[in-house]
Amino acid sequence: MGLILANLICFACHFKSIINIVCASNFFPCDSDSIVFLVISIHNLAFSYNEKSSIVFPDWKVDDRNPALIMGESGSGKTTLLQLMGGLLPVQKGSLVVDQIELASLRSRKLKAYRADHVGFVFQGAHLIQALNVAQNIRLSTMFSQIPNGMIPITELLEKLNLSDQRNKSINALSTGQQQRVAIARALVHKPAVILADEPTSSLDDRHCEQVIDLLLETCASYSAQLIVTTHDRRIKSHFSHQLTIPTK
Amino acid sequence: MNLVYLSYRYVLHKPLQSILHILLFALGIGLMLLVFQFSEQVLGQARRNVQGTDLVVGAKGSPLQLILCNIFHVDFPTGNIPLQEADRLAKHPQIEDVLPLALGDSYQGYRLVGTTMHALEWYGAKIEQGSIFKNVNEVVLGAKVAEKLGMTLKDGFHSSHGFSPENADSHEHFHFKVSGILSKTHTVADELIFCGIPAIWKVHDEHNESLTDTVEYVKYDLLPGSRVPAGSDREITSLLIKYRSPRGALQIPRYVNANTNMQSASPAFELARIQNILGTSSKAIQYLAIAIVVIAILSIAFNMYNAMQQRQYDLAVMYSIGAGFRSLYAVLVIEGMILALGGFVTGLLFTHLAIAYLAGEVEALSMLNTWKFVDMEFYTAIFSLFVGALSAFIPALKIRRQNSATILASG
Fold first, then answer.
1. Residue B381 pLDDT more than 60?
2. Which of A57, A208, B104, B262 suits a disulfide with A45, CB 3.0-4.6 Å?
């Protein structure tokens, strides 16, 4: 009964507020003692690509900004969860809070603004735009964000990621490792609160795997962005204090 | 960084392909503009030439030839008509004004036109330098003649018989002198050399001593009248006529047919016939131009469509950084517009270079003004932008909602 009531209040909230800052206690009546702002909260979340099957995600909450890991076999839906968190897919059912924002309440325009300002993506491949050079690829991320022009830390990021000499080079002139570092810079340049990395190490050998994870952890920390990584790669497990395993059906 | 810059980078990213698209587009647009320029400039001048002359009366022959010779000064005369007869016709009550012409000689390809001082008024020309012809050996040069031949006041020349510049048969015995140069009229008058009618008589008829060296009597008010000696066998080439009222159009041609041994032709009617003939071929060129533009657009569209396979990742990345679908479409649309605009500008340049070349090389087209811009060019620019935007429509169809997430998920 209490849960139903809480949900009703929650729905009323969705319609009223512009950006919902959801108090955790609304969702978890049992945790009534804490008024902790949740960085991640998954509750009753499910997503279906078609009518036949749907992915049901386990509930999860993360209440500090330490890096988080989402584990699961291929096809378990971990990438889908990451894309839900990044606002690439709409929340169909249940509740999903990222960086204190209830994504279920965001519709297309606000979802767009959310993608532009709050999250940065590191995809499995670098997916850099060939028509642009290194600095332009990084700057691209700020195109739709609110970040003021003077605060775009391109030079700083290039230095930090050891790419200063590559600044005006074409993407084709870079090694795969360099391309991935550009992709990391692109994810961070608009200073998002959350970095979502999809299988960043799956195709790398042990040495490079370690390097990439260290780099991600380090740069995210220095920009105080929370890192959320999906993987099936057990090598990187030890780096993450928050872990969620999505069960295979 | 904005969408226009991004589109621009995409255009630069495949330079050869972009150049090919731009050239193809430019070819179509260039042909289209060339047709517009021709119909504006050539037919525009033709219309100006026709203005002010309601009817041409001359020797019997082809009416088209009569007009081409006496209005446009391109064909040969149909023959001569007796001055007496022209004089009688000029007195018809429905005729307000006439201008007699005597043709037959040229200098360096420019036609010598024997007429009266009234010609200036008729062609809307003014004396820019010097004065009108007062003596039988004096001529007034059209603006273009003076410019092209580099002649100034007091220069002299011998005319040659016929209209061809290659004709060496010059009338050495008669020496012309430039007494004046006309202002530009943008009509055929710019390319004519005017003199008195007696000068033409004198050039062709060495032994006639009865002509005085003054051309006083060829002033307009003196021509159709008493100073033409009765029984004179003098001839002229044609008489240009202006009606007093629209009724003249009904009466005069019939009068000429019934009562004289001459023929009449209406410049407006003959010009319409010429336009009809030219219209067909310019239509054909226009259709060809449109076909080329369509091919250019399709080639841009299909190329973009093929490129979408690679571009889908780019679009997905754009989507992930906060671009809406409208922005994704915009990148493609602006890209198409940049290519089309590039094609238009190149085509415009081609057209005007072609006009400059033709005006310099082809005598009959020397009236073309290279840097004259016509209204249609402005509309063509807008049309280009529109079809450029349209070319992005097919590839844009490939962007679907939901796609971006799945594309990125696929690796």
1. yes
2. A57
**Whole-structure pTM value:** 0.73
Q: Nearest residue on chain A to B2, judged by CA atoms?
A: A143
B323 to chain A: which residues are within 8 Å by CB? 112, 143-144
Most confident of A20-24, B240-244, B400-404: B240-244
Closest approach of B381 to chain A, Cα-based (Å): 27
- Tell which of B6, B17, B18, B320 to mutate to test the A interface (max A CBs under 10 Å): B320
Higher-confidence position of A114 and B278 = A114
Q: In whole angstroms, what is the distance from residue B220 CA to residue B359 CA? A: 35
Residue with tokens 């049901």: A56
pLDDT above 90 coverage of chain B, percent: 28
> Rounded to a whole number, what is the distance in Å from the CA of B34 to chain A's nearest CA?
36
pLDDT in tens, B127-152: 999 988 887 788 999 998 998 899 98
Neighbour-count burial for A154-170, b at 16+ CB within 10 Å, e otherwise = beebbebbebeebeeee
Quick one: tokens of B226?
């008493």
What was the pLDDT predicted at B83? Answer: 82
Closest CA relative to residue A82, chosen from A37, A115, A38: A115
Q: Are B15 and B283 in contact (CB under 8 A)?
A: no
Q: Which residues of A207-242 are buried (b: 16+ CB within 10 A; e: fewer)?
A: eebebbbebbbebbeebebbbbbbbebeebeeebeb
Dihedral pair phi/psi, residue A61, rounded to 5°: -140, 140
3-class secondary-structure state, position B95: strand
* Span A32-245 CATH architecture: 3-Layer(aba) Sandwich (3.40)
pLDDT band at A18, cuts 50/70/90? very low
Domain boundaries, chain B: 3-46+276-409, 55-265
CB contact under 8 A, A143 and B408: no
Domain extents in chain A: 32-245
pLDDT of residue B229: 56
